[in-house]
Amino acid sequence: MQRRAVILLSGGLDSSTVLAIARERGFECHALSFAYGQRHEAELRAAARVAHSMDASHRVARVDLPWSVSALTGAVDVPKGRPVKEMSVGIPVTYVPARNTIFLSYALSLAESIGAIDIFAGMNAVDYSGYPDCRPEFLAAFEATARLGTKAGVEGACITIHAPLVRMMKADIVREGARLGVDYSLTLSCYDPQGETPCEACDSCQLRALGFRDAGLIDPAVRAA
Question: N or C: which terminus of the chain has fewer CB atoms within 10 Å of its end residue's CB?
């Protein structure tokens, strides 16, 4: 029987690459996205496109975070045009409090419900944007919690959080996705798009552009825009 896995899928470059990695490893993929009060739902449409392109099932969980003061969910402006070096200093206003903890908890609940012990996530700590919940230490701690706090874990299941991109440079992620045939024209990484068009100036857009440039490839999503 094919092993099942839950994949956190935002519709962006990293998570779409992770879905392709899980698929290549032979997992039956169950993609999970979130409507958490973000500025736009274009990323959810992107996630649906990506999941469909890779024959993955796709669920959207709605999470209410009315207290969030992040630039991704509130009235705070999304920073634009920041130098890349500045992005690694401090925690940016685009940080959503405990977001990855919440998302992984939902993924864990789904995994237990469908008989999966593998969760894939696209966290990256090399092209670091200042998010504390993208670090290997956090993922290891959550994995330990998952094994301690679930029926499956107590009964001996080796619940595993896979973060295959966590130590990769963005250019290497792009190359890996290209090798796996990810259609990046379907993806959206922007924090503040206009419709389906990326702003090309927020931190996420800039890191994505740098990754494609360093990989020597053209970003089809930007070209199409």
Answer: N
Q: Is the pTM of this model over 0.90?
A: yes
C-beta atoms surrounding 26 within 10 Å: 10
Q: Which CATH number fits domain 4-224: 3.40.640.10, 3.40.50.720, 3.40.50.620, 3.60.20.10?
A: 3.40.50.620
Cross-strand bridge partners of residue 29: 5
**What is the DSSP secondary-structure string of 180-225?**
HT--GGG----SS-BTTB--S-SHHHHHHHHHHHHHT---HHHHH-
Tell me how many degrees the CA angle 155-158-160 measures, rounded to the nearest 5.
Answer: 140
Whole-number CA gyration radius for the chain? 17
Give me the pLDDT at residue 225, please.
45
What's the sign of the alpha-carbon dihedral 79, 83, 87, 91? negative
Residue ranges of domains in the chain: 4-224
pLDDT for the residue 130: 72
Retrieve residue 8's tokens.
């956190």
pLDDT for residue 148 is more than 50:
yes
Quickly count: other Cβ atoms within 10 Å of residue 194's Cβ. 11
Dig out the tokens for 107 from the structure. 């993924």
Distance CA 179, CA 195 (A): 29
Taking each helix axis from N to C end, the angle separating 13-24 and 42-53, rounded to the nearest 10 degrees, works out to 20
Q: Which residue has the tokens 């496109």?
A: 49
pLDDT (tens digit, 9 = 90+) per residue, 77-121?
999 999 888 887 888 899 999 999 999 999 999 999 999 999 999
